[in-house]
Amino acid sequence: MSCSTPKKVPENVENIKEENVSNNNQKKEVNMSLAKVGAKAPDFTTTAYFNGDFMDFKLSNYLGSWVMLCFYPADFTFVWPTELAAVASKKDEFEKLGVKVFPISCDTQFVHKIWDETELSKMVDGDHYPYPLLTDPKGEIGRMYGVYDEDLGLNIRGRFFIDPDGVIQAVEVLAPPVGRNVSEAIRQLQAFQYVRKAAGAEACPAGWEPGKKTLKPGPDLVGKVWEVWKVGE
What we know:
Elements: H1 18-22, E1 45-50, E2 53-58, E3 66-71, H2 80-89, H3 91-97, E4 99-105, H4 109-118, E5 133-135, H5 140-144, E6 148-149, E7 154-155, E8 157-162, E9 168-174, H6 182-198, H7 225-228
Parallel strand pairs: 3-4, 4-5
Antiparallel strand pairs: 1-2, 1-5, 3-8, 6-7, 8-9
């Protein structure tokens, strides 16, 4: 039995030219039609590497919890280990919010293991990275979520917030060279949890943080937001 040659990760994966990402005159690099805000998150099963071992993973097993699903291009790249380390540094805050964090790339569990042992574990507290690293070697999950780049053969950087009902509440997709702000992710999750608890009676304005003013949507507020909210409040 022969083994196929694995696809080489492009050396410039985090230096993609802008025209290859957003040129509307060329074919679209990704398809964002499958996973939509307000729709059920596509379920999937895969293999993960976690705490020195391999494990089976099924997204729907985490119904009832908030989930942050983070796609990224590849292990042993440059921006992503900084994001992973930043997420790990906020582990206590994610746990306080009851948020399950699942990074996922097209690497296999074996590559995840080596990456954790040689790099990630040196960037976080403890012997191993504290969250399961999911695998998507054929890009099938990335295609479901609209973040798989057919030309690169990799998932681009995409983050999905999934609520306890399995509904996608937020999607953020970035070109590979730019990392995300983990503190902003936590702020957004706090806001989504707040409005969920309020059951539609309140909304969170720009920059909202716990303890700040919220808005109460209704006929009386139409055209009068300026009276009840100011930038920085």
